[in-house]
Design goal:
- The structure is a single chain.
- By secondary structure, the chain is α+β, with helices and mostly antiparallel strands.
- It has 2 domains: about 80 residues, Glutaredoxin, CATH 3.40.30.10; about 120 residues, Glutathione S-transferase Yfyf (Class Pi), Chain A, domain 2 (Up-down Bundle), CATH 1.20.1050.10.
- It is built from 10 helices and 4 strands; from the N terminus they run βαβαββαααααααα.
- It has a 4-stranded mixed beta sheet, with helices on one face.
- It is globular, with a radius of gyration of 17 Å.
Length: about 220
């Protein structure tokens, strides 16, 4: 498989975790979001939306949108499963995953931050306030569910990682990147710590990817 990603892309991070969990070999081609490589004709032919990630598997069209890619990987490589078998459990795991992929991450991606600055003329301080607000909203939602529901275990749902943990890990890394205070969310932090004890999560971390060290 070929993954188009970038070290700082939280959506690419999610796909790397899933590939690692399932033991799927892949080659990653870096598309530098900070340099605008997503807008080149070469990458637009891969993903006309000009966002990351994209995944090539065989001769079909490139796959896009991280959550769709995660479910594709789960359907084509079912072990270990990212979704429980029981319908209500699957709905809970998907719901937790969607806090990140629908409610938080779309509001803080580079194209939104650039619009806030270039079109609405918000300065860096105001943009950071926007980003932190949405990360904290997501963290509060996660903490409420994870601390208050009996299905929470060692991980978001039970005692093995699921789609929800993949998304939670990316949320937590993004919140840290933008200097959000983790202290109010002890259950979230406990689960994220458990996730990063696993090589599949640790190896996929943005700061361990090519280009990250040079950027720092």
């Amino acid at each position: 498989m070929k993954l188009y990603g970038f070290w700082r892309s939280l959506a690419s991070f999610r796909v790397r975790i899933a590939l690692n969990l399932k033991g799927i070999p892949f080659e990653e081609t870096a598309i530098d979001l900070l340099q605008g490589q997503q807008f080149t004709e070469n990458y637009r032919s891969v993903n006309p939306q000009k966002v990351l990630p994209a995944l090539l598997d065989g001769d079909g069209a490139p796959l896009f949108q991280s959550l769709a890619i995660l479910e594709y990987l789960d359907e084509t490589h079912p072990e270990p499963p990212l979704l429980p078998l029981e319908p209500r459990a699957r709905a809970r795991v998907r719901g937790l995953a969607l806090i990140t992929t629908c409610d938080v991450h779309p509001l803080i991606v580079p194209r939104v931050r650039n619009y806030l600055g270039n079109e609405l003329k918000l300065d860096e301080s105001a943009r950071l306030k926007w980003i932190q607000h949405w990360f904290n909203e997501g963290s509060r939602a996660y903490e409420s569910h994870l601390a208050g529901e009996a299905d929470t275990g060692r991980y978001c749902h039970g005692d093995r990682p699921t789609l929800a943990d993949v998304c939670l890990a990316s949320h937590a890394v993004g919140a840290k990147l933008f200097e959000c205070d983790p202290a109010p969310y002890p259950t979230l932090n406990r689960i994220v710590d458990e996730c990063f004890k696993l090589d599949a999560f640790a190896r996929a971390h943005p700061l361990k990817q090519p280009g990250a060290a040079k950027a720092h």
